[in-house]
Design goal:
Elements: E1 5-9, H1 13-25, E2 29-33, H2 36-46, E3 50-54, H3 62-70, E4 77-81, H4 86-94, E5 99-102, H5 107-125, E6 130-133, E7 136-139, E8 144-147, E9 150-151, H6 156-167, E10 172-174, H7 175-183, H8 192-205, E11 215-218, E12 222-225
Parallel strand pairs: 1-2, 1-3, 3-4, 4-5
Antiparallel strand pairs: 6-7, 7-8, 8-9, 10-12, 11-12
This protein binds calcium ion.
């Protein structure tokens, strides 16, 4: 069975080993990085299921690590920081962090944050999982989308778009994130193909494509699928 792999990015040895011990005791696989440069190369070579990211790193600000990771990945990232600055918290969330935990924190708080952040991406790993929101359901194993019990006939790429949004339901996915997930990190960042596909998807699943109730446009940002 696939164990959840967590990348801990933390330069302080005692905190790093505390988190590592806690996670291993709770059946997670763990890899660690003490520098931002190591974190970035490990994130792309191991593609962990979640990253715990300290902001104060010796070689680069953790915010810059987040920014770079988010340019090609939707992997959940939880910011772990000693700073309890509201503006910084908002900034990291805006940049796509899933959550924020301030030192010092307890074991149960840490584990709860991790479970919450993994909840969306666990839909990716769970083959039988079916995502449902009102009359719409996405069966990831059958690669099938149903609307009020009837199959919606989607093209391959339309299905990939709907399932990507469903796996991250409730969260805004930026255009660049979606393009990287759909066509790879080096694909041209051109929203036009995405927009054309989205218009076709909406014609198939929305009662009124001009006033969607499933897939929302976040103007200038990206798309978000409704969550129950
Ligand atoms: Ca630090």
């Amino acid at each position: 069975m696939h164990k959840t792999l967590i990348l801990i990015v933390e330069d302080e040895d005692n905190i790093c080993s505390f988190i590592e011990t806690t996670l291993k005791a709770n059946n997670y696989s763990v890899i660690t990085a003490k520098k931002a440069s190591d974190a970035l190369s490990m994130a792309s070579s191991y593609t962990p299921d979640l990253m715990l990211l300290d902001l104060g790193l010796p070689d680069m600000d953790g915010i810059e690590v987040l920014r770079q990771v988010r340019s090609w990945s939707v992997m959940p990232v939880i910011i772990v920081s000693a700073r309890s600055d509201e503006a910084e918290k908002v900034q990291t969330l805006d940049l796509g962090a899933d959550d924020y935990i301030t030192k010092p924190f307890g074991t149960s708080e840490l584990l709860a944050r991790i479970r919450t952040a993994l909840r969306h991406s666990i839909r990716v790993a769970t083959e039988e999982a079916v995502f449902r929101v009102r009359g719409l359901s996405v069966d990831f194993a059958k690669r099938q989308v149903l609307l009020n019990g009837a199959e919606v006939h989607l093209t391959q790429i339309e299905y990939k778009i709907v399932s990507l949004l469903a796996k991250h339901a409730g969260r805004v996915l930026t255009y660049d994130q979606m393009i990287a997930e759909l066509w790879g990190p080096y694909a041209e960042k051109d929203n036009k193909i995405l927009r054309v596909n989205m218009a076709n998807i909406r014609r198939k699943i929305e009662k009124n494509p001009a006033a969607p109730q499933y897939i929302f446009t976040e103007v200038g940002v990206g798309y978000r699928l409704a969550e129950e």
